[in-house]
Fold each of these.
Amino acid sequence: MNIARFPRIHFAHLPTPLERLDRLSKELGGPEIWIKRDDCTGLSTGGNKTRKLEFLMAEAQAQGADMVITQGATQSNHARQTAAIAAKMGFACHILLEDRTGSKDANYNENGNVFLDFLHGATVERRPGGVDMHAEMEAVAATLRAQGRKVYTIPGGGSNPTGALGYVNCAFELLSQANDRSLAIDHIVHATGSAGTQAGLVAGLKAMNANIPLLGIGVRAPKQKQEESVYKLACATAEKLGCAGVVQRADVVANTDYVGKGYGIPAASTIEAIRMFAELEGILLDPVYSGKGAAGLIDLIRKGHFKKGERIVFIHTGGSTALFGYLPAFDAMAHAADQATA
Ligand SMILES: *Cc1c(COP(=O)(O)O)cnc(C)c1O
């Protein structure tokens, strides 16, 4: 395995910090919790898509593209990071946003990531929830190609074997940081959605024979479906790396108990996790991904699944920009705080 063989444009702020969360660890009274700050990758408020885009945008450039198209839900962090790197590279960027939650709230539809998409100069089209977004994107790309545009399409979440290389690289980076400080990691936990993050991490950890269990906390699909899509992409990524066969089906584990009512709809546990990280550690999570991932982490510690003496690394995949699209979800909480101080 040799990542330097793959075209890559270096724009992420790497390595991202690996920090211990003393107050959260104490509050929960269980394992030692560490955080890998992939919310600090540097591109337009950061996040996990930046690592994937280092490889995807290199491929776009190698193919002579002058425009990228991608798609996601209204508050897509992936769309925002794609718009930002397209701006930096002088590419046009076109985004298709799916109304996956049905929210009519103005902040959800115009603020947060949507505001930043526009600020980075991207053009945006909307689609109703439930349509085949990949097919919609390919149709728009075909029209633009017929008009002479040199278009590179990026799948939702940047999740294909090229994008997943970014998280193979993160697995290396994390292991090397842990080795430098003799931190023997017992578990890695993070939010999993379009599968590229977990697939890249699994492929990288297995290729290094790291022997560290990885748990993806689901934000949308049921367990079986989520694990299947991660497994398929992890196998394809391992093959791309030149180590086909290193990933076994049992290496891919997702827990989808913290989705709540659905994708993009924060549960009470999501809000609690966001509040705990904000109040105990000064760290901002998000209502769609990292808040649900952290809710899983917190609950599994409370239930004794992760034990005292173990060292857990939570990979913070970013997304705090979406907080500004979710103000009503925090209303009840703000109200309760007002009453407490009255
Ligand atoms: C996209 C995203 C994830 C999930 O990563 P996938 O590679 O799509 O599984 C997690 N957290 C945040 C903040 C994201 O934007």
Note: The chain has a mean pLDDT of 96.
Amino acid sequence: MPAWGNIHPFVPIEQAEGYQIVLRELERDLTEITGFAGTSLQPNSGAQGEYAGLMTIRAYHESRGDIHRNICIIPASAHGTNPASAVMAGMKVVVTKTDDRGNIDMTDLQEKVEIHSDNLAALMVTYPSTHGVFESSIKKITQLIHDHGGQVYMDGANMNAQVGLTNPATIGADVCHLNLHKTFAIPHGGGGPGVGPICVAEQLVPFLPGNPVIKTGGEKAISAISGAPWGSSLVCLISYGYIKMLGATGLTNSTKIAILNANYIKDRLSGKFDVLYTGEKGRAAHEMIIDCRPFKEHGVEVTDIAKRLMDYGFHAPTVSFPVAGTLMIEPTESENLDELDRFCDAMIAIRAEIDRSSAGDTDNLLKNAPHTLHMVTNDSWEFPYSRREAAFPLPYVGENKFWPSVRRVDEAYGDRNLICTCTPIEEYMEA
Ligand SMILES: *Cc1c(COP(=O)(O)O)cnc(C)c1O
């Protein structure tokens, strides 16, 4: 709709009243969802939200004369953006350990907090953790930071496991970002645009980011975080619609179903794949990490499983993050039971294929995956398994076959090596 899509970010505000209503209501809804006191829609990504949030924390400390508070404690399990943002915000990163269960090591945290008590600026913590666990000592952790004069930044990328059930204010955080392109329905394929608003507690509201042209943010606003006063405002319409259409009950149901779906997969795969971390009650939050390292003894790597999933019609889940050699599965509330079952059937069938492989065997279903249409329809077929096993390993695949268009292209080689693909100048010469 041109009325939404063709408007300039710096149009005089009285000419964009509809946008003002939507943005203000979205801010109000996000503030309520997080349990906080104020929201800024300015940051364009989660990482930018982290930077914005840490800058408000810095401004808060400075306003109290605590200009020396510059230590930011971050658990080893954190997303890479966390330490990067802390450094950008002029802080010094101190890494705290995680224990065998993937939780923050309380003894180590206590020690670090005490050492840095005088200069503690903030803790950055992801809840539920990147390991897919609701850390049960979270309130003790936030209290400990407050007792030493620090503020708590909660990385809200996993809000899909909280909305309507709990919130960052409840666990004692002071500021969080939300990834509207993760939890609130903005599609984020291809790198953008995203929206990473920050929601903050009362004491940080005055410092929410401003804009030199159009007034936004708090009374003592930090400088602009991005070019436009409300960031990627166009895509905010999607999150606005998502929240309004679901309402409080629908949003809470989304959270419940996201958690239920993850635990359903976990249960169906149990005995076939090991889940690396679970909470004390043996449950996952909204995602889980499946350990593929033991399959090395069958000569199978996590990448082989990811590629083979394509033959079964699935885009692979996250590979080797946050732990190398693992798959992180996050079904969300979006998938129905049939789809979850198809995925589990595929994983279980792949497990059987793994058992049939052995170290040194480089010519099997897993190593040759994915199988393209070109391979399967070729006149010659020299693999030690049938075409059907390659391309239609389970009956459901035949009903809606997805054909991968290419096989493997050296995996991460291109990410690590600069390769010039320019055509030589002669090619441009007229014939
Ligand atoms: C995605 C993510 C981020 C970064 O968000 P972007 O929008 O990609 O910048 C930060 N922390 C965690 C835990 C995430 O999953």
Note: The first strand starts at residue 38 and ends at 40.
